[in-house]
Amino acid sequence: MNNSLRAAIAGVGAYVPDKILTNADLERMIDTSDEWITKRTGVKERHIAGDGDSTASMAVEASRRACENAGIEPGELDMIACATITPETLCPSSACYIQRDLGAAKAAVFDLSAACSGFVYSLAIASRFIEAGQFKNCLVIGAETLSRFTDYEDRGSCILFGDGAGAVVLKPTDQDAKGVQYTVMHADGNGWDFIWLPAGGSKMPTSQQTVTDRLHYLKMRGRDVYKFAIEKMQWLLEDCMKACNLTPDDVDLVVPHQVNIRILKSATEKLGFPMDKVYVNIDRFGNTSAASIPIALDEAVRTGRVGPGSTVLLIAFGAGLTWAGAVVKL
Ligand code: COA
């Protein structure tokens, strides 16, 4: 174990499908309005997978961009962790298809299922392998095709979700003030039915009845999720700052899971983060679960909102229930 190593973000990349579903489109599909959706969620439009898009295909494109940004070839990757709850297939993992298509022959690969917290969970795990000196180049992906598991007859949930993928390449650094400084992960399985997908697993295998009953779509108890998410997002911010001795002034940008604009405002404002220190793109992408943080981070880096030396807080909350945070020095 080499205690002096940290995992630095060496490259970022993202990909979203071309097809866009606007609130005006949804107005034609269900009983809703642009005004209601915008006020309650902050979403104006979301990208939706086209016929040729899938979780692995979007992840591959995001990963190629991240590798290019990091200046490495996919063949140099030692590990691929793909956070997703909408995998390419149940078996094998999405990461296997991604490895094949990238040509990352020597990488150990796996999917991680922690819903919207999955990217931060995966970042934490990959960081430990780098800190331990076992791996040099780790690819951490968040990729989701939520549209294929969304019930477009359920107006309480279909307004939120979008598709896309984001990825980061982690590399070791011996600079203490660079890279992943702190990570935290938690879960509470008592909240399993706050957001869940009933059918298609071992508990309720696919049958004609499950299809008829629309049980292959995500179900969400919106009100319960709302309350819990604010509490946990606030807790994560406080915990991350305390662990690294930071005040809001020391933080350059909070890159939260794009859960819902009202949740983000409530969770951050109380702790003294003005909204201009909170990265928001939910208006253009919706909630893309595990993909939302890496898509937002990629935008923040590419548009110069953050750069070398910036202190960034990543916080996420999602189904499970799960929640996770990280403090990263770019
Ligand atoms: N358009 C118009 N009206 C809608 C609607 C829609 N898309 N969806 C629900 N409504 C209606 C309801 O039928 C209800 O009407 P009623 O009072 O006549 O019965 C009313 O709006 C309030 O419904 P409710 O479900 O209590 O709405 P809400 O204020 O809780 O907002 C969410 C719904 C989903 C926007 C909100 O609960 C939420 O943001 N939850 C968190 C979800 C989340 O972030 N999930 C991802 C976690 S990673």
Task: Tell me what you see in this structure.
With 330 residues, the chain is α/β, with parallel strands linked by helices. It has two domains: 6-175, Peroxisomal Thiolase, Chain A, domain 1 (3-Layer(aba) Sandwich); 180-329, 3-Layer(aba) Sandwich (Peroxisomal Thiolase, Chain A, domain 1), CATH 3.40.47. It has helices at residues 23-29, 34-41, 55-70, 94-102, 118-131, 208-212, 222-243, 261-269, 282-285, 292-302, and strands spanning 6-15, 20-22, 45-47, 79-83, 108-112, 138-145, 163-173, 179-187, 195-196, 219-220, 253-256, 311-318, 322-329. Strands 1-7-6-4-5 form a five-stranded mixed sheet, sandwiched between helices. It has a four-stranded mixed sheet with strand order 8-13-12-11, sandwiched between helices. A two-stranded antiparallel ribbon has the order 2-3. A hairpin with a 3-residue loop joins strand 12 and strand 13. Helix 3 (55-70) crosses helix 4 (94-102) and helix 7 (222-243) runs parallel beside helix 8. The longest helix has 22 residues, at 222-243. The protein is globular, with a radius of gyration of 19 Å. The two termini are 23 Å apart. The model has no long low-confidence stretch (mean pLDDT 96). Bound molecules: coenzyme A. Coenzyme A binds next to helix 2 and helix 7.
